[in-house]
Amino acid sequence: MKKSLCILLLSLLGSLALPAAMASELAGITLEDKIRLDNQDLYLNGAGVRSKAIFQVFVAALYLSEKKTQAAEVLALSTAKRMQIIMLRDISAERFGQNFMEGLKHNVSKEQKSKIIDQMIRLGEMFSKVPEFRKGDKLTVDWLPDTGTVIMINGKKTMDSLPDPLFYNALLKLWLGENTAQDSLKRQLLGEQSDFKKSLK
């Protein structure tokens, strides 16, 4: 009896010594609170749902090496970053790409666009090769300091990396820019408001 009690106590103490892995849930999607990217820990800065009319389109989550609450601070951060998008409904890649280009048009100056036009063309070519984004598909847009912008769909690299940080920040402005299509999503990504629930993994 005493031996069983000792084993139980040791088991409990062992579980207390290990920090519980946490996750966040939003619109039925589970988001890791911490990820590993480019040999670095990144933390969930904020997440929200992109909506259009009455439809929920995707969940967006921003991962950074340290907490940031201002868009300018996020853009200035030189360490690894990730914008993660998980689709909540089916949408054609052509339409999704058009939304990307429209967002760039409204959030990037003419001078900046002239410097990243080649990268924008390559981004358009990427969308032309993907027929459709389906519910549950995951798009990650990463910044790796020694590599550049890396875009993956469901864990598969879709195009060569693009080294210009100006291009990555232009992409981030789709969600964090002054003229972003959904200001509430911007606030959520910056951690100003949150609709997700915390849970143990």
TrEMBL record:
- GO molecular-function annotation terms? isomerase activity
So which residues are the signal peptide here?
1-23
- Ranges for the Chalcone isomerase domain? 23-191
Q: InterPro entries attached here?
A: Chalcone_isomerase, Chalcone_isomerase_3-sand, Chalcone_isomerase_sf
Q: Which UniProt keywords apply?
A: Isomerase, Signal
Q: Which Gene3D superfamilies match?
A: 3.50.70.10
Protein name in UniProt: Chalcone isomerase family protein
What organism does the record attribute this protein to? Undibacterium umbellatum
